[in-house]
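Write out the 3D structure for:
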Amino acid sequence: MSKILAVEDLLTTGRQLGMYMVTNLVGYAIHSAVVLPLIYLALTRRNPYRITRGILQALVTAVGTNSSAATLPVTVRCCEDNLKIDRTICRFVLPIGVTINMDGTAIFQVVTVVFIAQLNAIPLNVIDIFIICLCTTLTSVGSAGIPGGGFVTLFVIMSAVGLPPDDVYFVLPVVWLLGRVITMVNISGDCVAAALLAHYFPRQGAGAVHREQEENMIDHADIV
């Protein structure tokens, strides 16, 4: 509230904040609807949008919970039941993805840092951009899969490039909305990673091992 009251031209700042939201949403759309599908298509030669259809329930849950960790049980069920991904792969890849695979969070942090720099008329050179990319990668890996997890680590990136950390509160009024879209992007990335692993190792899961054990037991019983 103190940051909002300190704004001299509230209308101009509101427009800038609106463009900030649009930039974030466009980035999320490009990443989830273009980049991830192209990666999956290039590596598997299969329709990437079947993954989106299979995890619709998880995406809706992500909007409601704003948390990758809270959505994890639904994500696992969608991948196992709808996408037919092996159980071992799902229960190994997806929990790790909740912790370290934060695609949407990384986009949010980069756009936010650049937005704050522009608000303060502070130019960013090549070294600053490199530091932002490095810090964003590290902090997105370390961010927790909870509401606002990526927002907390913004203070570290802001300090690394010499920006005033308190200005992060300018974007706080819209973080509640962006966070839900960020969670959807994060979950989509996790599911694509699980689908890629299942494509290259279709028989390397617990289900396959159990089936082989059962077949061996049946063969042994027949011999006896």
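Residues 10-44 form the longest helix (35 residues).
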